[in-house]
Amino acid sequence: MTELRGDRLILRPIVPSDAAWLLVHWNEPSVRLHLFDDTVVTPELVAEIIGDSREDFESRGYGLWAIVRGHEIGVCGLRTTDDHAAELLYSVDPKWQGKGLALEAARLVVEFAFTVRGAPEVVAETDAANTASRRLAEKLGMIRVRTRQGEHGPVHVHALRAPADSGA
Ligand SMILES: CC(C)(COP(=O)(O)OP(=O)(O)OC[C@H]1O[C@@H](n2cnc3c(N)ncnc32)[C@H](O)[C@@H]1OP(=O)(O)O)[C@@H](O)C(=O)NCCC(=O)NCCS
C-alpha cells in the first residue's frame, strides 16, 4: 500500500470499498463539470476507474490516491492515458477548496512519480475556463505546451519534465 504523507493530509490508493463516496464526490456538479465533461458518473464507471488505478499501481507504481484529512476529501493521482502518458488528476470537495490542499497533494504525487517511480514526465489537461486547475498546474511548475479544442471549449495541455537529477 503506497501511502504518501504530507503536513496536513495523507494519500492512500483508492480501493473498491471507496466506490460509494467516490460516486458522490465525482458527481458533485463542479467536480463533474471539469473532470467528466459534465456527464453523469455511474457506479460502473467508478468501478472501472478504481480497477484501472489498481492496475496502474501494479504496473507503474502509481495511480489514484484518496486525499484523507481525517476523512476522504478528494482524489489526486496519475492515470495512464491511451498514449501511455502519466496524466495528473485532482479534485477536492468544495468545502475543502482554497486551502492549498490540492496543491499539497499534487506536489506529493508528482515528487513520488519522479523520484521513486522514475516517471519521465507528467501531463495535465485543464479546461481554459477552469482557473483553479490552471493555477494549480502553474504552481506545480507545469508549462502549457498546447491548447486543443475540447467538447466544451478550449483545453490547455500542460507538461512537467522530471528534474535531471531524479534518475528518470
Ligand atoms: C482544481 C481544484 C482541485 C483546486 O483545489 P484547491 O484545494 O482549492 O486548490 P488549492 O487551494 O491547492 O489552490 C492551488 C492554487 O489555485 C488557486 N485557486 C484555487 N481555487 C481557485 C479559484 N477558484 N480561482 C482562482 N484560483 C484558484 C489557489 O489560490 C492556489 O494558487 P495561489 O496559492 O497562487 O493562490 C478544485 O478547484 C477542484 O476540485 N475543482 C473541481 C475538479 C477539477 O476541476 N479538477 C481538475 C480537472 S483538470
Write down the secondary-structure element order. Answer: EEHHHEEEHEHEE
Percent helix among the residues?
25-40%
Taking the alpha carbons of the first and last residues, their distance comes to: 22 Å
Give me the Rg, rounded: 15 Å
Question: Explain this structure to me?
Answer:
This protein has five helices and eight strands. The chain has a single domain, classed as 3-Layer(aba) Sandwich (Aminopeptidase). The radius of gyration is 15 Å and the shape is globular. The protein has a five-stranded antiparallel β-sheet with strand order 1-2-3-4-5, with helices on both faces. With 168 residues, the chain is an alpha+beta fold. Helix 1 crosses helix 3. Coenzyme A binds next to helix 2, strand 5, helix 4, strand 6 and helix 5. The site of coenzyme A has 23 residues, from helix 2, strand 5, helix 4, strand 6 and helix 5.
Tags for this model:
168 residues, alpha+beta, Aminopeptidase, 3-stranded antiparallel β-sheet, 33% helix, binds coenzyme A
